[in-house]
Amino acid sequence: MTEALTGRLAAIVGASQVSTDPDVLGGRSVDYTGRYRGRAAVLVRPGSAEEVAAVLTACRDAGVSVTVQGGRTSLVAGTVPEHDDVLLSTERLRGIDEVDTVERRVHVGAGVTLAEVQRAATAAGLVFGVDLAARDSATVGGMASTNAGGLRTVCYGNMGEQVLGLDVVLPDGSVVHRHSQVRSDNTGYDLASLFVGAEGTLGVITGLDLRLHPTPRQRVTAICGYADLEALIATARVFRDMDGIAALELIDARASALTAEHAGVAAPVEGAWQLLIELAGETDLTDRLAEALSEADLCGEPAVGIDGAAQQRLWQVREAVADVLGVYGPPLKFDVSLPLSSINGFAAESAGLIADHAPDAIPVLFGHVGEGNLHLNIVRCTLSGDREHALYTAMMALIARHDGNVSSEHGVGTRKRDYVSMSRTDADIAAMRAVKAAFDPTGYLNPAVLFG
Question: Class of 332-410 per CATH?
Answer without folding.
Answer: alpha beta
